[in-house]
């Protein structure tokens, strides 16, 4: 096929071989491909002098000429005439060396993926007084027969800017004049020349919403961060720090006034609304459901298409940077949900990116997720591994994110996850572990902690896979923390029982301590527990209206007493009645009622107590910080535990009564003689409790109890947890 026909049909694989400036011994030639041009003249940009005209080749849009006089220009432009206009363009095909630069080092370090690929704004130093501004495009499509960059700048015409294929499978082109804010996609032809749906940039930094889903050129260097104090402060051991995480879906935490006509609050509006609320409530961290761009609202972000772009539903990338910046300036850490397990089949996304399985496993027994109808990344391909690890680093680098909560880790670890016999492919040893995914997660964690030692990674992992939150050098996956799904399932199952039956399920509240220090756990009451017919946290509780609220308060305080960092989904803290609906706001109007404002007040006080008293957080992941005082009283459905600080000087007891029967003269063992005071009682009237009478201070007696030499006697209110601090002798 002649080059003119290839270019006309957007089927040219190697345009650099034909277009641009070619030097000979004593002459040079320039060839241009400019659709719809009627006349093209060449201008030397260093002198602004004309070099000559190019001659049309036949009836095509290919123009060329050979010049015998003078030296080749260092940089040149075309003066183009067509039926409608005269305009100037700087020939993209003269910058071949600069285009190839994108792929010289892309595989050397993970960070190079987002520093080299995608749409990179560059300045071309070509000897002019002012550098030429351009955008360098680079995309991986190894099995494509042709790739063109299309956008606003060429009327989305795939025949205008064919890209050059490199030996590494990347396609490259430098396009002068393309600037931040310009929209673009890639037109890709598969190996047989068939045109695919136009693809968004896999490493695009900004994306439009439906219906275009176009990528947008973005300049990451413009935003000026103001969180240096947060970044530079000495970060002490996170395991010894208080960590109370508020999990939020930004699209439904709060909705704009109906009169505004807007669907969502913007990132900047959330700065004014969400951050003061989080600060007032005493949470230490915000965890955001996935921020990476996603096409379908109903996926909540868990079907991402643009891993390198914060969703534009709420504003631009700099707006999200401002949100994170303001969180840091207010002492709030930011964790984002990160989804490296799978991706959707949307036509503009990664699925069959060049007509072949570039990003996903080819065999559907490994590459297709039956639960989520989505594609599974091929964790064994070097390019995919680089892509995913680079993305993890990207959020910590460009957006100063403090932590990554990694979604669906179990689905990555097991080849037979959610599959029946015959539906999965064993590993080389005949087992069900996905060695490729395991090594990827280990590599990701090593890279994160080596480059960003103050950051953290958190695994959502629901099985008994060993050493999820242990270092890689110890044979672990390398995560900093792991969600304690076992504690969550057992404790919610228990608390949903009628109190009269809880005596038969007592072990569900104590079993977690059998393995509590095997991993570094976060206790999660997440979005997954209050959706899809599971009901809100309040509605999981048995009994009448008062008992439901009392059960919730008792359970929340038990959670704060139990070893492990804390996570609560939005709405839990006000005792929302309805289960979560991503299409509507948290039911903030409920705070007009004492029941709900009382529950909110309790969560606020629990957070503040948890932060203030090291006994409740310093040894969250060390057996020395915890002791059962009484875990065998199934008959009365009571539990008593001791939490203590590293130096063991601060001793804080938590006693829970999971029945509506007050326990007067309730005695339990303590470590020392002296005075004990009640720090918090979930039955207080300020929390909409019954206000059952109990002494605020008690003195220990030399009465042995619960295998302790001393004991105290208190009145334990109905469906309540109380915290009692040892004050000393």
**Percent of residues in beta strands?**
25-35%
Largest sheet: spatial strand order:
15-16-19-23-24-25-26-27
C-alpha end-to-end distance: 95 Å
State the oligomer.
single chain
CATH class term of one domain: Alpha Beta
Question: Could you say what the CATH topology of one domain is called?
Answer: TIM Barrel
Shape: elongated
Total helices: the number is 15
What does this molecule look like?
The chain has 729 residues and is of the alpha+beta class. Among the domains are: 20-90, Sandwich (Immunoglobulin-like), CATH 2.60.40; 96-217, Immunoglobulin-like, CATH 2.60.40; 269-376 and 397-438 and 452-476, TIM Barrel (Alpha-Beta Barrel); 623-727, Golgi alpha-mannosidase II (Immunoglobulin-like), CATH 2.60.40. The strands form eight sheets. It has an eight-stranded parallel barrel, surrounded by four helices. The chain has a seven-stranded antiparallel sheet with strand order 1-2-5-4-3-6-7, with no helix packed on it. Strand 28 (626-630) and strand 29 form a beta hairpin. Helix 5 (267-281) packs parallel to helix 6. The radius of gyration is 31 Å and the shape is elongated. Catalyzes the formation of the alpha-1,6-glucosidic linkages in glycogen by scission of a 1,4-alpha-linked oligosaccharide from growing alpha-1,4-glucan chains and the subsequent attachment of the oligosaccharide to the alpha-1,6 position. The active site is at 407 (nucleophile), 460 (proton donor). One of its GO terms (molecular function) is cation binding.
């Amino acid at each position: 096929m002649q080059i003119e026909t290839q270019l006309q049909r957007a089927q040219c694989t190697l345009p650099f071989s034909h277009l641009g400036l070619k030097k000979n011994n004593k002459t040079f030639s320039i060839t241009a491909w400019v659709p719809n041009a009627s006349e093209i003249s060449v201008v030397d940009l260093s002198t602004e002098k004309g070099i000559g005209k190019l001659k049309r080749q036949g009836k095509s849009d290919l123009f060329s000429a050979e010049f015998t006089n003078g030296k080749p220009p260092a940089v040149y432009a075309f003066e183009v005439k067509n039926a409608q206009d005269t305009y100037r363009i700087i020939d993209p095909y003269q910058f071949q060396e600069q285009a190839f630069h994108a792929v010289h080092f892309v595989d050397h370090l993970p960070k190079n993926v987002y520093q080299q690929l995608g749409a990179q704004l560059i300045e071309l130093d070509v000897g002019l007084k002012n550098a030429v501004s351009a955008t360098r495009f680079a995309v991986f499509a190894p099995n494509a027969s042709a790739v063109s960059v299309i956008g606003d700048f060429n009327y989305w015409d795939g025949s205008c800017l064919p890209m050059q294929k490199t030996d590494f499978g990347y396609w490259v082109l430098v396009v002068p004049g393309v600037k931040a804010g310009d929209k673009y996609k890639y037109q890709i032809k598969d190996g047989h020349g068939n045109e695919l749906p136009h693809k968004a940039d896999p490493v695009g930094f900004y994306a439009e919403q439906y219906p275009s889903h176009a990528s947008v050129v973005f300049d990451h260097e413009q935003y000026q961060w103001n969180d240096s104090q947060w970044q530079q402060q000495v970060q002490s051991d996170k395991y010894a720090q208080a960590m109370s995480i508020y999990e939020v879906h930004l699209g439904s935490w709060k909705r704009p006034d109906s009169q505004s006509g807007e669907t969502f609050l913007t990132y900047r509006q959330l700065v004014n609304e969400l951050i003061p609320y989080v600060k007032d409530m005493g949470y230490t961290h915000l965890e955001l459901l996935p921020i990476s761009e996603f096409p379908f609202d109903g996926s909540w972000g868990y079907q991402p298409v643009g891993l390198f772009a914060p969703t534009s539903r709420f504003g631009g990338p700099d707006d999200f940077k401002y949100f994170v910046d303001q969180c840091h300036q207010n002492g709030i850490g930011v964790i984002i949900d990160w989804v490296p397990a799978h991706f959707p089949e949307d036509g503009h996304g990664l699925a069959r990116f060049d007509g072949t399985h570039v990003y996903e496993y080819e065999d559907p027994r490994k590459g297709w997720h039956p639960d989520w109808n989505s594609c599974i990344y091929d964790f064994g391909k070097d390019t995919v591994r680089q892509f995913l690890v680079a993305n993890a680093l990207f959020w910590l680098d460009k957006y100063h994110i403090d932590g990554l909560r990694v979604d669906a880790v179990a689905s990555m670890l097991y080849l037979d996850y959610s599959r029946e016999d015959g539906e999965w492919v064993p590993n080389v040893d005949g087992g069900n572990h996905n060695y490729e995914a395991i090594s990827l997660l280990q590599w990701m964690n090593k890279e994160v902690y080596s480059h960003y030692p103050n950051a953290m990674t958190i695994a959502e992992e629901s099985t008994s896979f060993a050493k999820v939150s242990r270092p890689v050098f110890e044979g672990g996956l390398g995560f900093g923390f792991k969600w304690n799904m076992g504690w969550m399932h057992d404790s919610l199952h228990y608390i949903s029982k009628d109190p009269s039956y809880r005596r038969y399920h007592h072990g569900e509240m104590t079993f977690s301590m059998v393995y509590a220090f095997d991993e570094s756990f976060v206790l999660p009451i997440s979005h997954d527990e209050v959706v899809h017919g599971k009901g809100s946290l309040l509605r999981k509780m048995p009994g009448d209206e008062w008992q439901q609220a009392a059960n919730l308060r008792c359970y929340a305080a038990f959670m704060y007493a139990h070893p492990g960092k804390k996570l609560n989904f939005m709405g839990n803290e006000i005792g929302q009645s309805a289960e979560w609906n991503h299409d509507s706001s948290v039911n903030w109007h409920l705070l007009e009622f004492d029941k709900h404002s009382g529950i909110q007040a309790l969560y606020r006080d629990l957070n503040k107590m948890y932060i203030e008293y090291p006994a409740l957080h310093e040894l969250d992941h060390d057996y020395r910080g915890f002791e059962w005082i009484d875990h065998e009283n199934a008959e009365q459905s009571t539990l008593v535990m001791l939490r203590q600080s590293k130096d063991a000087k601060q001793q804080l007891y938590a006693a829970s009564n999971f029945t509506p029967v007050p326990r007067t003269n309730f005695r339990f063992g303590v470590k020392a003689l002296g005075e004990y005071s009640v720090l918090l009682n979930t039955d207080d009237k300020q929390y909409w409790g019954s206000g059952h009478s109990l002494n605020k201070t008690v003195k220990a007696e030399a009465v042995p109890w619960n295998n302790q030499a001393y004991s105290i006697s208190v009145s334990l209110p109905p469906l309540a947890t109380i915290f009692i601090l040892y004050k000393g002798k």
